[in-house]
Amino acid sequence: MNINSRLQSVFAYLPPCVLEAVRSVPQCEQRQLREIRLRLARKLTVTAGDKEYFLSRSGLLTSSADNAVDVTCDDISYICHLAFKESVHSFRSEIINGYVTVKGGSRIGFCGTAVLDVRNSYSVENVKDISCVNIRIAREIKGCADELCKQLFDRRTTSLLIAGPPASGKTTLLRDLTRQLGNAYSTSLIDIRNEIAAVFEGIAQNDVGLMTDIFTGYNRFEGIMTAIRVMSPVYLVCDEIGSDDDLKALEYAVNSGVKLIASCHCSDLAELDSKPVIRRLIKRGAFEKALLLDSGAQCGQIKCICDLSRRGKEKVRC
């Protein structure tokens, strides 16, 4: 599904005034749209490239709010009504997590007033008075992992850690790598935030490979343990590891002989040594290679690749 098709699928969730404005954006600029934001009693904005603009009814992207579309309570209700399929109670976990994945793979995120559960460490048990909605238009860049696959996976299986700062293209690269590995090996994808496969009604909206088994919405521990017990994967893919809760399950995967492909937030490879969970996994031999992505490279541009196989007890250097 190309970006135009994905944008078209988002149109089904837009209230009339917003739809009119977005449709009026010139085609060349529509291809750059990444987000559509509605904030109650404020102005409609869109993100194109790396910048957020106000959007006028005539489709003009501008830094001035003067002629931008006003967002009303009815607009917010319209989107929520469709995103939750007229049944908020059926989407309780999505509401708690703050987003829902819709047909086409795009994500509708929202925030408002949290309702806290005083019996459970004041965790969020619901969200009311939704006041802000962010529609993130799905993007799938097939082929962005081609060179990486040729370099590291052409002749052998390899465990890999993908490191990079926010907006460096980690998930984009990980998605295409999952697709390519999943077309050649039995692969388990632990997609706890549904960002990689974008499953909608049981069907992955993104291509993640013909032999990839998708675990959506599981917590990391349960997803990994179940995958290893029942799917016998060659590769196990996780996005954004690093918490203490991840460690036990990932160590179990390593001890089971599974090859790990994972990503983590990191500004440079040396920083990996300051992350206790990542450092321990490297010392245990969980990853043979690590790569660092350039900041702001949406397609996952590789800055450097580091061999970890001989550096288990050393600080990681590029």
Question: Care to describe what's here?
Answer:
The chain has helices at residues 3-11, 16-23, 27-30, 73-83, 92-97, 146-153, 170-182, 220-230, 244-255, 276-283; strands at residues 33-39, 45-48, 51-55, 61-62, 99-101, 107-117, 123-136, 160-164, 187-191, 199-200, 203-204, 212-216, 235-238, 259-265, 289-293, 302-307. A hairpin with a 5-residue loop joins strand 6 and strand 7. The two termini are 36 Å apart. The strands form three sheets. The chain has a seven-stranded antiparallel β-sheet. The model has no long low-confidence stretch (mean pLDDT 90). It is of the alpha/beta class and 318 residues long. It is built from ten helices and 16 strands. Helices cover 28% and strands 27% of the residues. Helix 8 runs parallel beside helix 9. It has two domains: 3-136, Beta-Lactamase (2-Layer Sandwich), CATH 3.30.450; 146-307, Rossmann fold, CATH 3.40.50.
Task: Provide a short characterization of the protein structure.
The protein has 318 residues and is an alpha/beta fold. It has ten helices and 16 strands.
Secondary structure layout:
Layout lengths: L2 H9 L4 H8 L3 H4 L2 E7 L5 E4 L2 E5 L5 E2 L10 H11 L8 H6 L1 E3 L5 E11 L5 E14 L9 H8 L6 E5 L5 H13 L4 E5 L7 E2 L2 E2 L7 E5 L3 H11 L4 E4 L5 H12 L3 E7 L10 H8 L5 E5 L8 E6 L11
Parallel strand pairs: 8-14, 8-15, 9-12, 9-13, 13-14
Antiparallel strand pairs: 1-2, 1-7, 2-3, 3-4, 5-6, 6-7, 10-11, 15-16
Helix pairs in contact: 6-7, 8-9
Query: Structural class of the secondary structure composition?
Result: alpha/beta
Helical content band: 25-40%
CATH class of the largest domain: Alpha Beta
Largest sheet: 7 strands, antiparallel
Strand content: 25-35%
Number of H/I helices: 10
Tell me, briefly, the overall form: globular
Distance between the termini: 36 Å
Determine the mean pLDDT.
90
Overall domain count:
2
* CATH fold call of the largest domain: Rossmann fold
Stretches where pLDDT is under 50 for at least 5 consecutive residues are none
Q: Within the largest sheet, what's the order of strands?
A: 4-3-2-1-7-6-5
